[in-house]
Write a structure and sequence with these properties.
heterodimer, A: mainly beta, globular, B: mainly beta, 6-stranded mixed beta sheet
Chain lengths: 116, 114
Amino acid sequence: DVKVTQSSRYLVKRTGEKVFLECVQDMDHENMFWYRQDPGLGLRLIYFSYDVKMKEKGDIPEGYSVSREKKERFSLILESASTNQTSMYLCASSLAFGQNSNQPQHFGDGTRLSIL
Amino acid sequence: AQTVTQSQPEMSVQEAETVTLSCTYDTSENNYYLFWYKQPPSRQMILVIRQEAYKQQNATENRFSVNFQKAAKSFSLKISDSQLGDTAMYFCAFTPENTDKLIFGTGTRLQVFP
């Protein structure tokens, strides 16, 4: 079974702090994703990585950056946290399309982040 | 723009009954993939069922089945013999063939009552 592990289940930070959310997958997946989940808005893609050191902006990248130095790890960085970034953050991974195209994404448990 | 619409924010059903969750999408692509994901309370999001647009036959997974109407751009999920463990948020998602990025709907919260 694919395992996607997010480093924290709950996190509380202060406005202006630099925040790191970590995600690790154990199935050698090429793709990794960071989503934000808010009530009534569903899941919105923040950033997507299709290979080590490769990244692509999603629908709501403003205020976020990402890092993928190793294939199994994908970090989401809030450069200067603000209260409107209080949310649930979900990490996911999948095989690349073309290798059995459009494989489903596998999700972590989520990190509920509160910015005070 | 490609969008996914789930028009039912909340639904409820009695145990052992059948319930159908609606999903419509908008795209100009000819081939694509559709998914239903389930997110139980405080638990991990998991894949329920997957449909490829070029396949006429509706996908089924045990008690879960879809009604895929390509011309109407509709992809509803039917849950038969509902169980308490089916209580969850259900998300419909879409991806065109040439990308791995998913577009999600806003979700339907399903409550199964004893």
